[in-house]
## 1
Amino acid sequence: MKIACVGGGPAGLYFSILMKRQDPSHDITVYERNPAGSTYGWGVTYWAGLLDKLRAGDPESADAISAASVRWTDGVAIVRDERTVHRGDEGFGIGRRRMLTLLAERAEALGVRVEFEHDITGADCPELADADLVVAADGVNSVLREAHGDHFGAAFATGRNRYIWLGTTKVFDSFSFAFKETDHGWIWCYAYGFSGEQSTCVVECSPETWSGLGLDTLGEADSLHLMEKLFHDLLDGHALIGRAQADDAAQWLNFRTLTNRVWHRGNLVLLGDAAHTTHYSIGAGTTLALEDALALATALRDRQGAGDLDGALTRYAHRRRAELLSAQSAARYSAQWYENLPRYMRLEPAQMFALLGQRHSPLLPHVPPQLYYRIDRAAGRLEPLRRLKRWLGPRLARTLHAHTRTGA
C-alpha cells in the first residue's frame, strides 16, 4: 500500500511503525507541518497496561519509551495547607517532545519517510492524490476531517472551566494536586514529572475564579507570578514556565470534547485527536491515540484482500468506538467532578482525596459526598455492598447517557 499519514504526533508516527513492521514494502510518508523537535505541551502520562500493548506492537519503540519515562506510585494532595497521601497504581510520565523524537527515529529506521515542515492544507493536496490510504492524524482541528465536515459529523462539547498547560523546574516524584481557596473561589493544579529536569503543571479553575483573580486580563509573566504565589508550597520556590517554545505564550483554554458520527470516508480515516478527545483530567489522551494506531494496523492486517479496505476501516471504527465508551464516560464524570468542586471541599482533606479517586463514578454526583464516602469505605469491607455498587453504577450511567442523548 501507499500510505500518506498527515500529522506527526504519537498516533501517526506509531501507526507508520506498525505498518512497516507488518510489511516493509508499504510506501509510507508522514507529513508534519512543524519543524522537528517542535511540539506543544510538556509531558504526557500513561499507565503500565499501555507498555504491554506497545511491546506487542513494536518491542523496540516500547523499550525506548519505557527507558525514557519516569515512574510514580503515590498521589499527593495539598488541600488549603494540609498535605495528604494516597497509595495508587504505578504511573509513568514522558516528555512529549522526547516521545515524538523516539517514535520518529524508529519510523525512519524502518524506512518511513518523515517530512517535517510539510503542511498538508486540504484533502485535494497532490501529495495525497495517489495514496491507497490517507490517515488524518492532524489533531482536533483536522483540516482533512473538516474538508468533509458534513460526512464525518464532528460535534464538540465545550467544558465550563478554564485551564492552562504549564511546565516547571520542580521535579515531582508523585502525581501531585494542590487546591487553593481564594476570595474568588477555588483554583487547583495537577502536577507530575516527566524527566529528571522538569514537570508538567496544569492549572484549572471556574470562569468566575479566573476573571475574579484577573487572569483574564493579566499578561503571561504576571499570571505565572500570581500562580507561583498561590501554589508556593507545591512548587517549593520553583518557577512556572509558559510554552516550551519561547515565541508562543501559554493560553487559557476551555477543553473541547470531540466526537465524530463516522470515522472514515473512502480511503480517508481518522486517528487520535482527529477522531475523538477525552478530558485531560483522566490522563488518557496519548494512550487512546496509540491504541487507535494499534487497532487500525490490526484491522488492515486482517483484511480480506486489497478490495476489503472499506470493510477494514469500518471494523476499526466500530471496535474503537466500543472500546472508547468507558474512557469517554470516565472523562465526562471527571470533568464534571472538577466543575462541581465546591461540593466536595467541605470534606476533610483525606476524604476529599478519596472521592477525587472516585470521580469517574456515575453514582457520586447523585449521593451526598459524606454519605458516598461512608458507603465507599463500607463497600471496601463488605462484598454485598461492593457487588451492589458494581451493579448499580453502569446502569445509572446508561440511563443518564440515554437521557442526555434524547434530550428528555
Note: Residues 309-339 form the longest helix (31 residues).
## 2
Amino acid sequence: MGKFFKDCQHAPSRWAKCPHLYKIRYRSSNRRQIEESGFETQDLAIDRLTSVYKAKKAAPRKQAKSERIEKYGNMRFREYTAEWKAGQRHLAPASISHLESLLQHHVFPALGSRRMSSFDHKVVDGFIRAMERNGVGLAAQSNAYDKLKSILLDAHRLGLFEDNPLLGVRPPQYDPKRAVIPSPAQLGSVRIAGDDTFLLVADLMSGCGMRNGEAAAVNINNIVAADVYRINEQVNQSTKTYDRLKHRKAGEYRDVPLPARTKRTIEWYANKYGAANGYLLRHPKHPSIPFQPYLLQSQWQRLKRRGALDIPEGMVIYSLRHFFASNCLRHNIPITDVAEWMGHNSIDITFKIYRHLMPGSIGTAAKLLDTGLAP
C-alpha cells in the first residue's frame, strides 16, 4: 500500500514527539513512485495512504465500466439485442419464436437502428405512443414493451445509462371497455352457430375459463371430479404441439369449476366422436397432430361473414373466456378465486381487466359497514 516516514535524524520511536512533518511514499497505477509530505500526524499520513489504496483498487472497475460504455453504448439496438438474446437459454422454443416475432414486427422497425447510449424515458414513451397511433393491439403493445424493458434493464445493469430509461414511463394499460363480453342470450346463439367442435370449445371457454389453446387440448381424463376439470396443458400455437401452461412449469396444473352443462358437452362429444388417449380434438386433415386454435378462428371469421353470429361489435373468440370471469363475479365469487382459475400470474391482471364488472362493490360495502356502526 505504501509507507509513511519522517525524513529526519530521530528514531521512529521518537516521531510522535518530533516536530518534523510526516511523508508518504507509494506507487501510482502506472507504477511511478510518488512522494507526498506535509502530514502533521501519523493518522493523517495513514488516512492519505488508505485513500490512495482505495482509489487504485477502484480504478480497474471504473476502467472496465468505461470500456463497457464505449463498447455497448455505440452498438445499435438490433446488434445489442442479438447478444442479449443469446443469453436467454432458459426460454422454451415457443417463447423464442414469440420473442423474435415481437422484435421483428414491433420493436426493430422503430428502434433497431438506434444507438444504445441514446435511450432515455422519452424514447421509450415515444415508442409506446407510436404503437398506439399505429393501432397495435393492446396485448402486442404490452408484450413488446415487456421485451424492450428486459433488454434496457440489462443494459442499465451494465452501466450504459446514468438514469434508468424506464423510470417514469407509463406502460401500456388495459382498457376494460375493450373487453367485449357477450350476454347470456348472445352466448346461447354463439354456441350453436358453428359445428360440434365450435360448440365444445365455446362451452369450455365460457364454462371453465379456458384459453383457446387450453380448450384445444381438452382431455376427458382431466375430469378429476364431477364438478372439477384439471387444466394441465395447452396446444402451443407456435410449435403446434401439446405444451406446458402459460406462466407455469412443466407438470403444473390448475383445477377449475366444471359446470354440469360443460361436463355434459364434453361427454356428449366423446360419445359421438371418441377420444385418442383421452384427447377429444385432433386436426381434421392431419389426425396425427393436435387440433390447432387457428382453425377455430377461421370458423369464427366464416360465421361472421355469413352473419351467423349475433355478437356485439368488437367481440372476439376470447370474449367467451371473458364471459366466464363476468359470470363468476356476477355471482359474487371472490376475484382471488377467479384469478386462480383463469391462470393469471398476478391478481393485478384480473383486477385491471374485470374491475368494471363489479360496479356495486363499493355501494354494497357501504351498506354492510353501516350495519356495524354505532347508532
Note: The chain has a mean pLDDT of 85.
